[in-house]
């Protein structure tokens, strides 16, 4: 995937993934695409309408569950709340909308799979295989009836539409023709490569070396930095004005959005039974691990951490915040199901004025300023030593067999020599550092391995760097990578064509989404 940025890699995965979109989105329990009046907002049971066709809530719910299960199977068991913070729910919805747009476009263009292609796909689905590993028609009918909840006609019609969507993608991709000049231009960019070793000097590394200011120093600093102190207070008012909070645990008995009254009553009865176990002396965390349906907190004994009232469903918040530390709510219903919440600890609201914390802020800013000066001075010393012939790896060695703290995503307590992978001049980022346009510019102005002759600023860090490898494009290198680069260029163009095509479908069509319906499925995710 050299030369493809993360956004384009994600798009390429969509192109590849659309081939199996029906197996991911139309598995057991899915309900296909329904219909509604053109241009109307989605009903309560739909997450979107695409040119008048509804994407049912259940389809989104199943696609979301499969997405989360896929992440878990890949060793990434992230909580649903975190997945939503990264916009994964919007990506899942977008894939459903794109699939529907493509299926509709295929219908308009008369694109459809053959009966033989449909038959082959169904026969390859292991859900329908016998114990001997071959397609079994009786099992096919049974699985459709008991798990997919479809008739063969309904299921096959859905597969046809999704296969047609893939064929529509294939048609679009055929326009991705790459000339020799484009391949050569790609090589000129990608063949211009470098590798760095750098060390970071952060103010936080030197904060403990800054002595507390004297009364006279603090008074002088406070007088000279009144605006900065006021700005700091305004930007961090959430630290000084903290609402009431509780540290809580929960046990959740999940209830599906389309649950019947009987199913809701059963869930409530189960929660009441669990509460009786707690009254009998059962430990809340132990019971949560054994009985909670909240995957995000179950393994942590239902631990929710510190919670503010406004982040919860009002009924749940009112019940929990009325308790004393150590008490447990009665069963409380929400869009997710039925909850039991135990309050472990409570903190009252805080409301500190600027005058109350002016000295505290001034001390903090004074130390930050002094630490920045120390970090810059240490970076200057390291640069001078590197220029005098002492490489960064000698000055700031990493213990044998370990990676630098930066690569372990741990807090850096001292400068360490970090070696990058090879990178190109195409962007303005340096591996492991991120955007650093001045550093990239200086790197590619270098003719060969050399210590770069200035300290660079990247965020709050002072960077000292040396070029350890420098590669320039040449004819031999081009001949060696020509076909690889042609493939990459074609993939990039396929992505651009697909994105452009989908954008045009959305622009000319009518897509209306229903975020409230999504919230009803996912709730606050723990």
From TrEMBL:
Bilayer topology annotation: Single-pass type II membrane protein
Instruction: Tell me where it mainly resides.
Output: membrane
Q: Which family does it belong to?
A: Belongs to the PpiD chaperone family.
Could you tell me which Pfam families the record lists for this protein? Rotamase, SurA_N_3
Against Gene3D superfamilies, the record matches this protein to: 3.10.50.40, Porin chaperone SurA, peptide-binding domain
Q: Which GO terms describe its cellular component?
A: plasma membrane
Give coiled-coil spans as residue ranges.
none
Stretches that traverse the bilayer: 9-27
> Where is each PpiC domain found?
243-345
Q: What is this protein called?
A: Periplasmic chaperone PpiD
């Amino acid at each position: 995937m050299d030369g493809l940025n993360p956004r384009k890699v994600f798009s390429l995965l969509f192109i590849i993934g659309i081939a199996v979109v029906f197996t991911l989105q139309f598995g057991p329990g899915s309900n296909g695409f329904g219909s509604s009046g053109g241009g109307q907002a989605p009903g309560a049971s739909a997450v979107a309408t695409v040119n008048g066709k509804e994407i049912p809530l259940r389809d989104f719910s199943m696609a979301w569950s499969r997405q989360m299960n896929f992440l878990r199977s890949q060793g990434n068991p992230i909580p649903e709340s975190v997945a939503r913070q990264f916009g994964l729910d919007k990506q899942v919805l977008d894939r459903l909308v794109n699939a529907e747009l493509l299926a509709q476009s295929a219908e308009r263009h008369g694109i459809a799979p053959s009966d033989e292609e449909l038959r082959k796909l169904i026969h390859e689905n292991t859900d329908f295989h016998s114990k001997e590993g071959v397609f079994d028609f009786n099992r096919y009918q049974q699985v459709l009836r008991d798990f997919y909840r479809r008739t063969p006609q309904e299921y096959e019609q859905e597969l046809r539409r999704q296969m047609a969507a893939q064929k529509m993608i294939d048609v679009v991709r055929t326009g991705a023709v790459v000339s020799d000049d484009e391949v050569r231009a790609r090589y000129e960019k990608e063949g211009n490569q470098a590798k760095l070793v750098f060390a970071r000097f952060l103010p936080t590394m030197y904060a403990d070396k800054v002595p507390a200011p004297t009364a006279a120093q603090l008074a002088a600093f406070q007088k000279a930095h009144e605006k900065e102190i006021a700005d700091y207070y305004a930007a961090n008012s959430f630290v000084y004005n903290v609402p009431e909070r509780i540290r809580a645990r929960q046990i959740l008995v999940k209830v599906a959005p389309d649950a019947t009254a009987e199913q809701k009553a059963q869930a409530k009865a189960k929660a009441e039974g669990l509460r009786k176990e707690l009254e009998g002396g059962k430990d809340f965390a132990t019971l949560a691990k054994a009985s909670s349906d909240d995957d995000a907190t179950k393994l942590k004994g239902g631990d929710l951490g510190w919670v503010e009232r406004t982040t919860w469903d009002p009924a749940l918040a009112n019940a929990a915040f009325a308790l004393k530390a150590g008490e447990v709510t009665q069963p409380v219903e929400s869009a997710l199901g039925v909850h039991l919440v135990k309050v472990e600890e409570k903190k009252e609201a805080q409301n500190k004025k600027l005058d109350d914390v002016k000295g505290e802020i001034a001390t903090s800013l004074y130390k930050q300023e002094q630490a920045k000066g120390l970090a810059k001075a240490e970076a200057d010393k390291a640069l001078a030593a590197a220029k005098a012939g002492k490489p960064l790896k000698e000055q700031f060695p990493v213990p044998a067999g370990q990676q630098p703290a930066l690569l372990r995503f741990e807090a850096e307590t001292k400068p360490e020599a970090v070696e990058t992978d090879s990178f190109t001049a195409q962007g303005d980022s340096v591996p492991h550092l991120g955007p650093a346009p001045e550093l990239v510019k200086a790197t590619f102005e270098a003719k060969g391995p050399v210590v770069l002759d200035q300290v660079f600023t990247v965020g709050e860090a002072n960077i000292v760097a040396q070029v350890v490898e420098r590669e320039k494009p040449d004819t031999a290198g081009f001949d060696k990578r020509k076909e690889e680069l042609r493939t990459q260029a074609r993939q990039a163009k396929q992505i651009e064509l697909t994105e452009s095509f989908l954008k045009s479908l959305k622009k000319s069509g009518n897509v209306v989404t229903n975020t409230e319906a999504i919230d009803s499925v996912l709730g606050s995710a723990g």
